[in-house]
Amino acid sequence: MQETVKIDPFGFREYDARWLYPNNINLQGIENLGKGFGSQIIKHSKKNNPRVIVGHDYRSYSEEIKSALKKGLISTGCFIEDIGLSLSPMVYFAQFNLSSDAVAMVTASHNENGWTGVKMGIKKGLTHAPEEMKELKEITLNEKFVEGNGNDKQINNFQQIYKDDLINKNKINKKIKAVVACGNGTAGIFAPDILRGIGCEVIELDCNLDFTFPKYNPNPEDLEMLHAISKTVKDNNADIGFGFDGDGDRVGVIDNTGNEIFSDKIGLLIARNLSKKHQGSKFIVDVKSTGLYANDDILNKNNCETLYWKTGHSHIKRKVNSENALAGFEKSGHFFFNNPLGYGYDDGISSAIQVCHLLNNQNKNMSEILKELPKTYQTPTMAPFCKDSEKYQVVENLVKQIKEIKDDKTEIDGQVIKEILTVNGVRFSFEDGSWGLIRASSNKPSLVIVTESPTSNERKKKIFDFIDDLLKKTGSIGEYDQKI
Question: DSSP 3-state assignment of 316?
Answer without folding.
Answer: helix
